[in-house]
Amino acid sequence: GAAGAAEESEDESEVLEESPCGRWQKRREQVNQGNMPGLQNTFLAMDTEEGVEVVWNELHFADLKAFKAHEEKIKTVFEQLVVVDHPNIVKVHKYWLAVDDCLAQVIFITEYVSSGSLKQFLKKTKKNHKAMNVRAWKRWCTQILSALSYLHACDPPIIHGNLTSDTIFIQHNGLIKIGSVWHRIFAEAIPADLRSPVCAGREEQQNLHFFPPEYGRAADGTAVDIFSFGMCALEMAVLEIQSNGEACVSEEAIERARHSLDDPNMREFILSCLVLNPEKRPSAHNLLFHRVLFEVHSLKLLAAHCFINNQYLMPENVVEEKTKTLDLEMVMAEMKRKGRPPVQWRYSEVSFLELDKFLEDVRNGIYPLMNFATTRPHTLPRSSSQAPEDPQKATSPTPEPFDVETRKVVQMQCGMEWSEEKSQWHSPLACGSFARRRPVIH
Questions:
Q1: Mapping DSSP to helix (H, G, I), strand (E, B) and coil, where does residue 372 land?
Q2: In this structure, what are the phi and psi dihedrals at residue 332, rounded to the nearest 5 degrees?
Q3: What is the pLDDT of residue 362?
Q4: Which of 115, 189, 262, 277 has its CA 20 to 30 A from that of 82?
């Protein structure tokens, strides 16, 4: 009854273990947030500083001698992962090593995505006899490509290598999060004899169609992710690529899914990703400019991001306040035409509710600006990463990193005084006022 359910809930929320610094508390409840070679356990945990739920991941190594031989390499891998920061990528917050006489563990804390995977969402949509919303498809594709463009622009490039509809998560507000980013990096850094057994059951067989023919060869590169993305985009468009009960999805099923696409632009976009020759597949950065993804005019998107990034200069309800003072019949734009009356747009034609919703979506990362950024590499230096927690030394809460100065000078004053001693003018200490600036995500 209700009492039994309450007891079960209490059992799941029971704190089993704490991080050395005391910030993260591991609970009994297990969660699934994407697979990784050798990942034994993933538990729900609490971040006691931020008051949010996170995931406590455990990697177990029984061969202590082999672990010691590769310990530095493991640390380097996780130090790189900790500095990966993008709104559409599941964040790795912290890691530490725990070694005793019979077992070595790498424990790392990741962001918790509670809303479920892309595959689960697509199955629910199909079950309710609904078709895929084209606007949602465009937004999801843009966000996934934005994350891939970021990863591929890192120095050295990060190849996801495990992009499927099971490792992509959708939050309730439509924000996409890519999980399991560490899968490929970890699989390549750690020799096979050190990894714990990986479950290779029916579920993995059903995902084989997400990987291109060159996958796993020495020469494969970022084009692997483009093929996987193309298959995800196809699955999102048709809701499900039928396997008809077989262990894996057949070529015939994929072919049927391709032919079912009505939009020629969508078909061309997806097929360009699924080209068998990896050299002929477009980059994630170039795909972001494809005409099929065009939904919001670039000038409107740039203006929205500029507005969000500088909102510290304006009151929170600025849109609502502005609409109260505006003359809705006022012309905001006009296009003159020779020999004909001009085309005019008035403020009354703007839906301010829609504008508010659009700005909220931009703020939440639904419309990333990554596709307008230059393709400069995002260097992931070891020196800039966070050091792992030392269980022996960490006795106080994890210190916060130094705050970067994000305030902007809005007013500065200084006076000039005559110095008799030096026979010259000099300026005493200036005083100024600052406006608090919100952090900007690049």
A1: helix
A2: -100, -20
A3: 84
A4: 115
* Contact between 371 and 289 (Cβ < 8 Å): yes
- Residues 255/267, Cβ–Cβ less than 8 Å: no
Structure tokens at 14: 């029971």
- Which one-letter amino acid corresponds to residue 345? W
| E strands present in 48-172 | 52-61, 92-99, 104-111, 154-155, 168-170
Side-chain-side CA neighbours of 198 within 13 Å: the count stands at 14
Per-residue b or e along 14-51, where b marks 16 or more CB atoms closer than 10 Å to that residue's CB: eeeeebbbebbbbbebebebbbbbbbeebbbbbbeeee
3-class secondary-structure state, position 86: coil
Say which amino acid occupies 397: P
Q: How far, CA to CA in Å, does 83 sit from each of 11, 80, 187, 382, 395?
A: 34, 6, 19, 9, 24
- Cα 62 to Cα 20, 69, 196, 222, 382, distances in angstroms: 21, 13, 8, 33, 27
Q: Do residues 121 and 170 touch, judged by C-beta distance below 8 A?
A: yes
CB 21 within 8 Å of CB 389: yes
Distances (CA, A) of 234 to 79, 195, 262, 271, 299: 34, 33, 12, 9, 29
Contact 141, 236 (CB under 8 A): yes
pLDDT digits (tens, 9 = 90+) for 6-47: 555 666 678 899 999 999 999 999 887 655 555 668 899 999
Query: Of 351, 309, 353, 345, which Cα lies nearest the Cα of 329?
Result: 345
> Is 73:370 a contact under the CB 8 Å cutoff?
no
**Residue 202 pLDDT greater than 70, yes or no:** no
The residues that bridge with 30 in the sheet, in sequence order, are 43
Minimum mean pLDDT among 126-130, 185-189, 220-224, 384-388: which range?
384-388
d(CA 348, CA 330): 8
pLDDT tens readout for residues 36-74: 555 668 899 999 999 999 999 988 888 888 888 888 888
